[in-house]
What does this fold into?
Amino acid sequence: MSTTYRKFTLGNTITEEQQAFFDRNGFIHFSDFINEDTVNDIIKASRQVEQKWLAEQRVKVNGIPVKYGKDLDGSAIVQRFAFINQHHDLFAELPRDPRFEVLLNLIGPGARLGTEEKDGMVLNHYVNGAASKFTQMGWHTDGLRDIFHGQKLNPMLNVGIHLSTLQPENGGLRVLPGTHKQSIYQMLFRKKYFLDNKADRDEIAITPKAGDLTIHDGRLWHRVAQSSVIGEESRRRVIYLPIIAGKYEPKHENSPTAFYQRFAGLVK
It folds into this structure.
C-alpha cells in the first residue's frame, strides 16, 4: 500500500481534494490549527486540572478510569485525562471554535462533537523515563467500543490536537491507511488488540508540529509508538475529541465503567 503523506490547511470548508484524501486513506492532517500561545495555555490548564485531581485522589471521571504515572523526577502525574472539558473553562471553550463545525462535514448530516459522550475530550501525556508506564499503546481501532456494547458500528472520527512537535523517533500516532474500509472480521482480528505493538511495513508515522490537528476514522487500525528517546525530549501531549453520529448517549458522574476498561492495565 502506498500513500503520499500530505498536510493540508483547514479553511471555511472541506475541499474536494481534502475529502478525497480522507475517504481514500481514513486520516487527514491540518497544519497550524492553534498557535503557540494557545498550546502553552492548554498545557498550563492541564497542569491545573492535574493538581486538583492529584489532591482529590480522583479515580474515575464519568466512569472512565484516570490513568496516573510518574514524571521523570518520580513525582505523580496524570497521564490520561478523560472529560477534561468538564473540568476547566479553557477546555470547555475549545470545542466551540467554529472550525469544528467544518470538520463535522467529513461525516455529514447528524454528526456532532462528543464532548459529553464516550470519553469526552481526552488529554494524553506521554513521557519516557525510568518509572514510565504509559509510553505506548498497541494496535487497535476505536470502533471496537460499539461492538463491545453490542451496538451498531456508527460513524466516528477521532480529532487530535497536537501539543508537541514530533519526529518519528519521538513516537506517537501510527496509522494503517485504508483500513477503515475493512470487513468487520478484519476489524476484529487483523491484529491483537492493544497487545501487538510491532511496527507494520504499511504504517505511516504522523509527525505533527505543536498546534497541528489530525483526524482519523474510528475504524482505522492505529497505534501509539513508544519514543526511542528518553527524558524530556520524549514528552508529548495530545488532545483527542470524537466526532460521532447515531444515538445521543451522554455520560454522567454515575456512569458505569465498561468491562473492557477494567483491563486498562494491559494498555501501556
The domain at 16-266 is CATH 2.60.120.620 (Jelly Rolls). The two ends are 28 Å apart (CA to CA).
